[in-house]
Write a structure and sequence with these properties.
Layout (H helix, E strand, L loop, with lengths): L1 E6 L3 H11 L4 E7 L2 H11 L3 E5 L7 H11 L5 E5 L4 H10 L3 E4 L4 H11 L1
Parallel strand pairs: 1-2, 1-3, 3-4, 4-5
């Protein structure tokens, strides 16, 4: 079972991802609202993949990804957003994100991007 850390300020999104990953080889190990929680959870959980929303309270998901990868270069991050532009996608990939997933997404799209990242 591969562990997934979800970083998103929407409880609805947490529940949707947990539901989407039921009966797959992926399991949500922790859900975080912001970058600070994500850093603590990554250190404690050592997940296989991080799903990182771009729009977060405090620092955004791209900056959070930079900080996460600076500390744990082996981390596999998939950026997620409903409000992303080409420059956001380019910035996310430049930081080291493995891929990008647009909200809303299907269960199949989520599963595929996690398989590719992990």
């Amino acid at each position: 079972m591969k562990k997934v850390l979800v970083v998103d300020d929407s409880r609805f999104m947490w529940e949707e991802i947990i539901h989407a990953l039921a009966d797959t080889e992926f399991s949500v190990c922790s859900c975080c609202r912001d970058a600070e929680e994500a850093m603590r959870a990554y250190e404690e959980q050592q997940p296989d993949i991080v799903l990182m929303d771009i729009i977060l309270p405090g620092i955004d998901g791209i900056e959070a990804t930079q900080k996460l990868l600076a500390r744990w270069p082996e981390a596999k991050v998939v950026m997620v957003s409903s409000l992303a532009y080409d420059d956001d996608i380019a910035r996310a990939k430049k930081t080291g994100a493995k891929s990008f997933l647009f909200k809303p997404f299907s269960h199949e799209e989520l599963h595929k991007v996690l398989q590719e990242a992990g």
